[in-house]
Structure formats: structure tokens, C-alpha cells
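User: My instructor asked us to take a sequence, write out its structure as C-alpha cells, and then describe one feature of it. I'm not sure where to start. Here is the sequence I was given:
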Amino acid sequence: MEIKYPLEIQVGGRSFKVEFTRNLIRDGYNRGDVTWHKSIMRLDDNMLEDITNITFLHECIHIIDEIFAAGQLSDNLTSQISEGLYQILRGLGIRFVK
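Assistant: Let's start with the prediction itself. The C-alpha cells for your sequence are:
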């Protein structure tokens, strides 16, 4: 099952716009990030599908963590959870597409 990336996600009463950005990695950032004061999640536009999916989940987990747990998860643990969640979704035949 293919699910289109949402234009916006809502977590805990807050809305975050989802944007694909060129050269995010090249310009010194990670594969994705969240700009909190603007409520924007950015994902690099030039990644393999699997990496984009994992990065999307990673940034979603950061948002959930920040809103509900005051940012207690390390980036490493966030990466591990996003990888595991992606494996479950892929096993169910679910993937995100642009």
C-alpha cells in the first residue's frame, strides 16, 4: 500500500508542514530536520525511497518526543526506533511516496 507523504502532520494539537528541500544534506544539515519555531519538517529531496521513509519516521518521532516527553530520546535511540518502525511498515506492505 502506497501512502502519499502528507503536506502536514498534526501531533498534540500542533501542525507541522512537511517540505522536501534540495541540498539539505549538502548544505551541512542532516537528511531531515524540524524547524520548531516555524513548525516545519524538512526532508532532503535527493535520497533513496527507503532512506526518505526512514528519515520521515525519524523526524515524526522527534516531534512526538518533544511534545510528549520533553525531548528525552537521544538521536541514536530515535534512529533505532524509526528503523524498527519502518521494518514493520515495510513488512506490512506500507510505504510512503512523493
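For the description part of your assignment, you could build on this observation: The chain has a mean pLDDT of 94. Try explaining in your own words what that tells you about the chain.
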